[in-house]
Amino acid sequence: MIGASALELTILHRDSLTAARRGRLKLPHGIVETPAFLPVGTQGTVKAMLPRDLEEAGTDMILANTYHLALRPGADIVKEAGGLHGFMGWTRPILTDSGGFQVFSLATLRQVDEDGVEFRSHIDGDLLRLTPETSIEIQNALGADIIMAFDECPPANAPREAVEEAVRRTSRWAERSAAAHTREDQALFGIVQGGLHEDLRRRSATEIASLGFPGNAIGGVSVGETPQEMRRIVDLTAPLLPREKPLYVMGVGGPADILDMVASGVDLFDCVMPTRHARNAALFTASGILKMRNLEHAREHVPVEEGCPCHACRGFTRAYLRHLYSRNEMLAGILGTIHNVTFFQRLMGRARAAIEAGRYDEFRAEARRPFDDEGERAEVD
Prior knowledge:
- This protein is α/β, with parallel strands linked by helices.
- The chain contains 15 helices and 16 strands.
- The longest helix is centred in the C-terminal third of the chain and has 28 residues, at about 330-355.
């Protein structure tokens, strides 16, 4: 049972010059307009944002993490509260990662074998074992609309032999994940691995596509490779997966990456960049990133971005936000996060409108220019 009936993707417009498409994804907890950006709520919360702030920013869907929620508070407690939606007070769609990314990010704290992965908790050292079956069991209890098959995510610099084994294991674990899935109201996505090796990407895409998941993801990117390598792999992999199904690139990303991958036909993205940047006084605008601790903003009595409808821009100025950041006030991160998440959602809205208008390639070139050198990739928020 892989939850095909829990998901319906309607393609509304296709760009004539690129593979970009404008869609509408129907899920049990609502509609997601695609292409879409999912703010990251690793611990069952998007840092510094209330659910109403996320809704006001234009967010249709968020991401939460299986590994972290299994450690604290525990899937049983979340299930008692009515699943993640009831627990965190978010009524719109949710996607949960399987814990596979932690195979990469917590490499010094885990042991991988054919059955699964044993983690030494980064919190208190306790052991947590994740297998395809336990990952799916936890995700079934959490109750997200989209859940992910358990996979092995090697770093970009892993030897070819290790990447090849990760591809084989990811396919075997995908079959076991599908067999373990028990809820028809949750759509289970498969994940393609293969590192920077084009033949391994092709093999993984073929094997994962053959399993008939209702949606698929490209994993193992934004794990240490260059932006050019990441985009090459996504460009290669996207056309190999069923085009009638939603496509998700995991852990991406910055505005330039997103805009390029929309052109490759990707529908869903997630990244901690907007929230993490906001806590570090870096705010996104259509003209580029503002470093809010810089002295140049001390007397700028204007919004962070003219025309932005977010609460930070409606009620406060750059000068005030610089003051908050320079004094390490909690409100700085709150207002900055509200602005950054709103920026990303507005960017996706502009991308959707450009696809509808038949001018996506022109829009992409114009909108990505200020972010060509953004460079920063991030992990768990």
